[in-house]
Specification:
By secondary structure, this protein is mainly β. The protein has helices at about 1-10, 240-245, and strands at about 45-55, 75-85, 85-95, 100-110, 115-130, 140-155, 160-170, 180-190, 195-205, 215-225, 230-235, 260-270.
Length: about 270
C-alpha cells in the first residue's frame, strides 16, 4: 500500500503525507516563519500550541537592561487545530492592544519537480483590538481583517523561499477611514541540518501615519526537536498578530532599534 501511494504521488507530482506535517513537508518544516505563515499543514486532528515573545527594550541598551531581555514583553498565545489534512483553524491573542484573532489556512496546490517542489496555500483572519491604547481615533473592539496567498518553493535540498502577498483591511486603527492596503511578505530559510536552520523575512508595507513608517525585518535561527520548533530572532517589529505586524512598525531596521524575540510551538497529536 505504501509503495502504491508513493507511486501515485510521483505520477501526480505531489508530495506524500508525512507524520507531523501533512502537507508542504518538503519546503518549510514549520507552519510559520518568524511572523509570516508558510504553506505547511498539520495532520488531521492535530493541535499546535504557540507561545511567543517580543522584547520591547532594544538590544542596544546593553548590559544594564540585559541586552533587552530585562524589560517588558509583548506576548502572544496561539492554538491551531487541523480539521483535516488541508484545513487548519486557529485563534491568536496578544497583549498588544489585546488583539484577538480567528483565522483559517487551507492548502491549495502542490507540484513542481524533485529539484524544485512548490506549495501554495491561502489564509485569512479577522481580528478585534479589544483594548486599544487610548487615542482620539481608536475605539474599543476595532475590527481588522486580512487575506493572503502563500507561495513556497524549495531551491535544491536546503533553501526554502516564500512570498506572501496580502490584502489588509483597516491597516491603521488610529485612522477614522478604514483603508485596504496591499502588503508583500518575503522570507527564506536555509536548513543546515535536521535540527538547525537560519531564517530571514521582510514585510514591505507603505508608510502609514506617524507611527507605522517602516517595513518589518527579522532574522534568526530555528531549532527543531521532536514535536517542538524554537525560533530565536532579532527584529525591529514588536507587534505580534498578523493585522498588527503586516501594517508596519515605528522602529527602523537599524542596530539601535533591534530587539530580541522568540517563538515556541508544540505539536499535540491526538
Amino acid at each position: 500500500m505504501k509503495k502504491t501511494i508513493l507511486l501515485a504521488c510521483a505520477v501526480l507530482g505531489v508530495a506524500p503525507l508525512q507524520p507531523g506535517l501533512a502537507v508542504a513537508q518538503n519546503v518549510f518544516r514549520s507552519t510559520q516563519s518568524a511572523n509570516l505563515p508558510t504553506a505547511a499543514m498539520l495532520n488531521a486532528g492535530d493541535w499546535l500550541f504557540e507561545i511567543s515573545h517580543r522584547f520591547d527594550t532594544p538590544i542596544s541598551r546593553g548590559a544594564d537592561a540585559l541586552w533587552g531581555v530585562d524589560g517588558p514583553v509583548v506576548l502572544r498565545l496561539g492554538l491551531t487545530y487541523a480539521a483535516n489534512d488541508r484545513l487548519m483553524l486557529g485563534v491568536l491573542r496578544t497583549n498588544g492592544e489585546d488583539n484577538v484573532e480567528l483565522n483559517a489556512k487551507a492548502s491549495v496546490l502542490q507540484g513542481g519537480s524533485d529539484a524544485m517542489p512548490f506549495e501554495v496555500a491561502a489564509m485569512g483572519g479577522v481580528a478585534w483590538n479589544t483594548e486599544p491604547f487610548e487615542t482620539e481615533d481608536a475605539t474599543d473592539n476595532e475590527m481588522q481583517a486580512y487575506a493572503q496567498l502563500i507561495i513556497n518553493a524549495l531551491l535544491g535540498d536546503r533553501v526554502a523561499v516564500g512570498a506572501v502577498p496580502t490584502l489588509l483591511y483597516n491597516s491603521r486603527i488610529r485612522d477614522l477611514d478604514k483603508k485596504t492596503a496591499f502588503v508583500l511578505g518575503l522570507h527564506a530559510q536555509v536548513y543546515t541540518s535536521g535540527a538547525l536552520s537560519f531564517l530571514g523575512e521582510w514585510i514591505i508595507s507603505e508608510s502609514r501615519g506617524n507611527d507605522l513608517t517602516n517595513d518589518s525585518g527579522t532574522f534568526g535561527i530555528e531549532l527543531r526537536t521532536r514535536g517542538h520548533f524554537f525560533k530565536i530572532i532579532v527584529t525591529n517589529q514588536a507587534r505580534m498578530n498578523p493585522t498588527q505586524f503586516l501594517g508596519g512598525t515605528n522602529k527602523r531596521f537599524e542596530t539601535d532599534e533591534w530587539r530580541f524575540g522568540f517563538n515556541v510551538t508544540r505539536l499535540l497529536p491526538f
